[in-house]
Amino acid sequence: MKIHNFSAGPSILPQEVLLKASESVMDFNESGLSLLEISHRSKAFIDVLDEAKETALELLNLKNKGYEVLFLQGGASNQFLMSAYNLLETKATFLNTGSWSDKAIKEAKLFGSVHELASSKDSNFNYIPKNYSIPTDCDYFHCTSNNTIFGTQIKNFKSCPIPLICDMSSDIFSRVLDFTKFDLIYAGAQKNMGPAGATIVIIKEDILGKVTREIPSMMNYKLMIDKGSMFNTPPVFSIYVSLLTMKWLKNMGGIKAIEEINKTKAIVMYSEVDLNPLFKGFASIEDRSSMNATFSLINTDLKVTFESMLKEAGIDGVNGHRSVGGYRASMYNALSLDSVKTLVEVMSELESKA
Ligand SMILES: *Cc1c(COP(=O)(O)O)cnc(C)c1O
């Protein structure tokens, strides 16, 4: 039976990527060697890394615009720390839109004063605050583009007079944005780009070199740039599978093409949430994420029936995060419209039964 994988992360990857990735484990590009047993300094792997960097810049339309691409380890969580280590001299300002922003704030506080510009914590992060203006007397402004747990997404990024740092872990490569607005973008690979293990960092080089503290090697962006993400052994397999996923995206028409599909999936999903009287959405309508749809059953007596119907239909990974409850359908790039339609059919079948 086909399983419809709505997992929030690690999450669905394109079938053809999984196939190619598994081939590389036995015989990488007909070299007679596994990708897992060659040197990260071999030409074969350096070609992978170079192509991954190029493809990322190409997809984001950031080629020749002063950006560097790094593939690091430690996940987005390490970037909470690393970004502050390298960029926070006195004061930084944050938009708090969920648990991940909250964690980024906590790490940054180790390095300087942190100003929470606006927060939606008062209503369990079910909306994106909009009524704020970014101060000019801070080292940078940090935000989270898509709040994976709560199902909200920033639709419009305000123009930012100071360096703009964005955690795009759960919506990178999903929609067209003017990426030149951002000075530092980071994302754990395992939501919308590849398997766990690699973290992509896209950084405008000219924001570096402004803090006075000493930065340990493994935390130092400048050093990582100078060493081409090879200061130590990079996560080779995760980088390779991320490359395959980026190439899959490029071949289907890039971000513009996937954005259309993602929009359609979101419309199909949220229409059902809104029209079906058994369900209600969690996030405020104008801030709804096209990646993670959060909703719940109004009458929890139907929970057992609904969940056995989901199982029957091959739907997996839709349980909500413990801090929100209910359900969460993650509709990352590799999830097909067909999977969303299958979920929506089950929801409407529940209505006809109830
Ligand atoms: C999953 C997630 C993280 C944490 O990523 P790790 O790679 O596990 O550290 C951070 N931010 C957002 C928005 C996420 O979705």
Q: Span from first to last CA?
A: 26 Å
Low-confidence stretches are: none
Report strand order across the widest sheet: 2-10-9-8-5-3-4
Molecules bound to protein: pyridoxal-5'-phosphate
The helical percent reads 25-40%
Radius of gyration: 21 Å
- CATH fold-type name of the largest domain: Aspartate Aminotransferase, domain 2
β content, as a range?
A: 15-25%
Q: Can you count the beta strands?
A: 14
Which structural class best describes the helix and strand composition? alpha/beta
CATH architecture of the largest domain: 3-Layer(aba) Sandwich
Q: Mind summarizing the main beta sheet?
A: 7 strands, mixed
Shape: globular
Number of domains in the coordinates? Answer: 2
Describe the protein in words.
- It is a single chain.
- This protein has nine helices and 14 strands.
- By secondary structure, it is α/β, with parallel strands linked by helices.
- It has two domains: 15-252, Aspartate Aminotransferase, domain 2; 255-353, Aspartate Aminotransferase, domain 1 (Alpha-Beta Complex), CATH 3.90.1150.10.
- A seven-stranded mixed β-sheet has the order 2-10-9-8-5-3-4, with helices on both faces. The protein has a three-stranded antiparallel β-sheet with strand order 11-12-14, covered by helices on one side. A two-stranded parallel ribbon has the order 1-13.
- Strand 3 (91-96), helix 4 and strand 4 (113-119) form a beta-alpha-beta unit.
- Helix 7 (254-275) runs parallel beside helix 9 and helix 8 packs across helix 9 (337-353).
- The longest helix is centred in the C-terminal third of the chain and has 22 residues, at 254-275.
